[in-house]
Amino acid sequence: MKTTQTVAALMIAASALITGCSSTPVNSTNYSTASNDSTYGVIDAIQIVRIDPATSGVGAVTGGLVGALVGNQVGSGSGRTAATAAGAIGGALVGNNVERNRNQPYDAYQITVRLDNGEYRTINQDSVYDLRVGNRVRMVDGRVYRY
Length: 147
Known about the structure:
This protein is of the alpha+beta class. It has helices spanning about 1-20, 60-70, 80-100; strands at about 40-50, 105-115, 120-125, 135-140, 145.
């Protein structure tokens, strides 16, 4: 009974790890603390780019651990050892596939902004709304907004 509760707790923790680690922000740059001349500018270019997030290996490790725990519940002696090894390998394969399916490539808009101080910044965001080349914009928390 105690082993079943342990396996259930580990499966819940593994699922939380996979879910929590899988989301990747489109852009992690924070411009809100910069001075005003470095947050205002004009859009120089807008392109659509393909973002291909890499797998971190968390899915394979978590799947391997869960598979080994489940496999350890089967048989006894050398049969238990074989079941544990098979569960670890199978779980790692399944966990890696789950992580890869959750991290599918996606399209993003790459917006190049010429700032008032002469610098250029490139921001990736999921949509452009009503942004066009030549628009006066403000960058807040790594996103571009019309000004």
